[in-house]
């Protein structure tokens, strides 16, 4: 679905959203395993190969790069449908390494033993035909130039001609030889979807989604596999001596879901390699603590508290956590290891007993956070005046609150140190224009430490000598005042031009670029590469991996409260065992931009939004603001 949403998107109730003037759509995703057993080599022409000058029509760097992006994009469609796909190159080396030995690509073909080799070779030649889609096949080899290869070429040209605007002519051309493609006895087609010297095609390619080309090629290959799987399998055995294990089912089969239980079983065995089940509370507690420290991305971010009681029928296990996946995994580990459980339950926080006021702000100059609901017991961190916290639970007498701070630390703090708020007041405090103390400042014996951040009570003039700041609650030493005045040089004001907004603008320039695991270039990135590059372009370094990025910045959103998100906030997602596996950038409101196969795309947390992603909505766990 393509949505002509030009202008502002993702507008939230607090008015923060990112401008995006581009058509948005949900990328195509194969939903059945119709290509299972199909082995394909995709060869993006160019990239430093010496044969580039021997292309039937001249090619250039821009064509070479486009070949690579289409090939990468196509590979995700094919893999999603169950095919095995091999690319002959993953990067663009034309300007750095010079000519490439063609034998490297031929070695990839021999190792893959494919059913078909497809070379993508967009032309960039003023002498070549315009408004044309062409396929080249070799006529010098009896096996490679048989009717099977011709049928494959015809299907590819037909699909592409219907996808590329203005492709008035289509042709399959038999050449005496194709020196620019990997030599192989497998059916081999060199496909020319367009000519960049044709101004109309170049303009279209610059704006159209890569999916326009890759989807057409995918459909042609899917039809080829359905029609000629047996012939392709026979040819593969002739060429490489390899039999095809699977051929298409008469009716498409649904893509098998990832098995959460299999992942848990593997994890359990890695945590407890002993050939017997953990049978005592101490042994099970050891295993689950090992899971918390080893398998979770960071054990200060995720709460995992266990209570284990021994009964005559077995062990009673209670797990308290801020992520259902973690609780389910903890119980699953115990069961996978064969621990005799008489009862097992997961208590998901925040606790219902907190009511609607599940948020707070620190209202004293400083307050320690403890590992247990009592002082002088396992200190975790310290809160400063004005620090926002998410509340997860409270003691029965209400004297301590279990909090999740903006630094992501979890622990217990005295309830009289926290001014409790409802959601709307909390969001207002979290996102209000603010000032941060850059040096210690004292007012009537109350010390304001460096890093204390308080909202502005009124706008500060450029030449102001003092600024007025809001207090979360009156401090006795300061009287009943709800504001204080401090010297202008004692604080740093938050910037009106936010870095996050600029990061979003950079990320948006890569919409539609293919997913490349480990990639960080404009030809393809992975999820954390997109996020880190967007900030690196502005001079700010973020860690490379999502599991590291989740530790940077202040916490501004949780799974159960996301309304304070602003453009550029980093979003994090977990798998079924609680590991952080994915990241993206908020656009403000419910929408976000992220790199997920097959391409950089915009998705939404809102079920009413056409861009809604149920998968990522369920997997979301935290949002952070790297810079404020």
From TrEMBL:
<dbReference type="GO" id="GO:0006508">
    <property type="term" value="P:proteolysis"/>
</dbReference>
<dbReference type="GO" id="GO:0008745">
    <property type="term" value="F:N-acetylmuramoyl-L-alanine amidase activity"/>
</dbReference>
<dbReference type="InterPro" id="IPR000064">
    <property type="entry name" value="NLP_P60_dom"/>
</dbReference>
<feature type="domain" description="NlpC/P60">
    <location>
        <begin position="497"/>
        <end position="627"/>
    </location>
</feature>
<keyword id="KW-0645">Protease</keyword>
<dbReference type="Pfam" id="PF00877">
    <property type="entry name" value="NLPC_P60"/>
</dbReference>
<protein>
    <recommendedName>
        <fullName>NlpC/P60 domain-containing protein</fullName>
    </recommendedName>
</protein>
<dbReference type="GO" id="GO:0009253">
    <property type="term" value="P:peptidoglycan catabolic process"/>
</dbReference>
<keyword id="KW-0788">Thiol protease</keyword>
<dbReference type="InterPro" id="IPR038765">
    <property type="entry name" value="Papain-like_cys_pep_sf"/>
</dbReference>
<dbReference type="InterPro" id="IPR002508">
    <property type="entry name" value="MurNAc-LAA_cat"/>
</dbReference>
<dbReference type="Pfam" id="PF18348">
    <property type="entry name" value="SH3_16"/>
</dbReference>
<keyword id="KW-0378">Hydrolase</keyword>
<dbReference type="GO" id="GO:0008234">
    <property type="term" value="F:cysteine-type peptidase activity"/>
</dbReference>
<dbReference type="InterPro" id="IPR051202">
    <property type="entry name" value="Peptidase_C40"/>
</dbReference>
<dbReference type="InterPro" id="IPR041382">
    <property type="entry name" value="SH3_16"/>
</dbReference>
<comment type="similarity">
    <text>Belongs to the peptidase C40 family.</text>
</comment>
<dbReference type="Pfam" id="PF01520">
    <property type="entry name" value="Amidase_3"/>
</dbReference>
């Amino acid at each position: 679905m393509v949505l002509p949403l030009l202008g502002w998107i993702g507008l939230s109730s607090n008015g923060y959203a990112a401008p995006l003037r581009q058509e948005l759509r949900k990328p195509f995703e194969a939903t059945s395993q119709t290509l299972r057993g199909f082995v394909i080599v995709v060869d993006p022409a160019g990239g430093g190969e010496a044969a580039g000058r021997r292309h039937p029509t001249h090619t250039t760097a821009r064509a070479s790069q486009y070949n690579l992006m289409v090939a990468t994009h196509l590979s995700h469609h094919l893999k999603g449908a169950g095919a095995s796909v091999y690319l002959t190159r993953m990067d663009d080396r034309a300007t750095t390494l010079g000519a490439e030995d063609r034998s490297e690509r031929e070695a990839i073909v021999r190792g893959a033993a494919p059913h078909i080799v497809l070379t993508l070779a967009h032309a960039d030649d003023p002498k070549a035909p315009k408004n044309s889609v062409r396929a080249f096949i070799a006529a010098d080899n009896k096996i490679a130039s048989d009717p099977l290869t011709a049928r494959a070429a015809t299907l590819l040209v037909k699909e592409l001609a219907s996808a590329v605007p203005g492709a008035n002519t289509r042709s399959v051309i038999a050449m005496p030889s194709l020196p620019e493609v990997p030599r192989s006895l497998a059916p081999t087609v060199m496909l020319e979807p367009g000519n960049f010297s044709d101004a109309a095609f170049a303009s279209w390619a610059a704006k159209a989604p890569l999916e326009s080309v890759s989807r057409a090629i995918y459909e042609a290959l899917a039809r080829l596999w359905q029609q000629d799987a047996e012939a392709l399998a026979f040819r593969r055995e002739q060429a490489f001596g390899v039999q095809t294990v699977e051929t298409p089912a008469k009716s498409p089969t649904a893509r098998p879901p990832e098995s959460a239980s299999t992942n848990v079983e593997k994890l359990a065995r890695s945590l407890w390699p002993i050939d017997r089940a953990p049978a005592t509370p101490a042994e099970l507690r050891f295993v689950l603590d090992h899971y918390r420290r080893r398998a979770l991305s960071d054990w200060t971010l995720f709460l995992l508290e266990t209570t284990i009681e021994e009964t005559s029928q077995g062990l009673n296990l209670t797990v308290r956590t801020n992520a259902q996946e973690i609780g389910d995994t903890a119980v699953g580990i115990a069961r996978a290891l064969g621990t005799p459980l008489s009862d097992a339950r997961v208590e998901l926080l925040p606790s219902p007993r907190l009511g609607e006021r599940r948020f707070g702000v620190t209202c004293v100059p400083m307050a320690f956070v403890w590992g247990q609901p009592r002082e002088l017991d396992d200190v975790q961190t310290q809160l400063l005046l004005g620090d926002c916290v998410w509340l997860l639970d409270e003691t029965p007498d209400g004297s301590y609150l279990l909090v999740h701070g903006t630094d992501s630390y979890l622990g217990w703090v005295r309830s009289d140190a926290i001014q409790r708020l409802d959601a709307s007041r909390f969001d207002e405090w979290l996102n209000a224009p603010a000032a941060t103390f850059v040096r210690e400042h004292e007012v009537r014996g109350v010390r304001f430490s460096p890093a204390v951040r308080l909202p502005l009570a009124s706008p500060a003039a450029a030449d102001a000598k003092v600024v007025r700041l809001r207090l979360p609650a009156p401090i006795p030493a300061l009287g009943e005042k709800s504001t204080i005045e401090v010297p202008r040089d004692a604080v740093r004001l938050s910037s009106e031009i936010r870095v996050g907004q600029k990061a979003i603008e950079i990320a948006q320039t890569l919409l539609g670029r293919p997913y490349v695991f480990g990639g960080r270039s404009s030809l393809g990135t992975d999820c954390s590469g997109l996020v880190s590059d967007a900030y690196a372009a502005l001079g700010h370094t973020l860690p490379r991996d999502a599991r590291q990025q989740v530790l940077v910045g202040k916490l501004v959103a949780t799974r159960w409260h996301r309304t304070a998100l602003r453009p550029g906030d980093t979003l994090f997602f977990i798998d079924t065992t609680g590991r952080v596996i994915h990241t993206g950038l908020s656009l403000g409101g419910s929408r976000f931009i992220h790199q997920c196969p097959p391409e950089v795309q915009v998705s939404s947390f809102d079920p009413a939004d056409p861009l809604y992603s149920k998968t990522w909505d369920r997997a979301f766990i935290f949002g952070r603001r790297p810079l404020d």
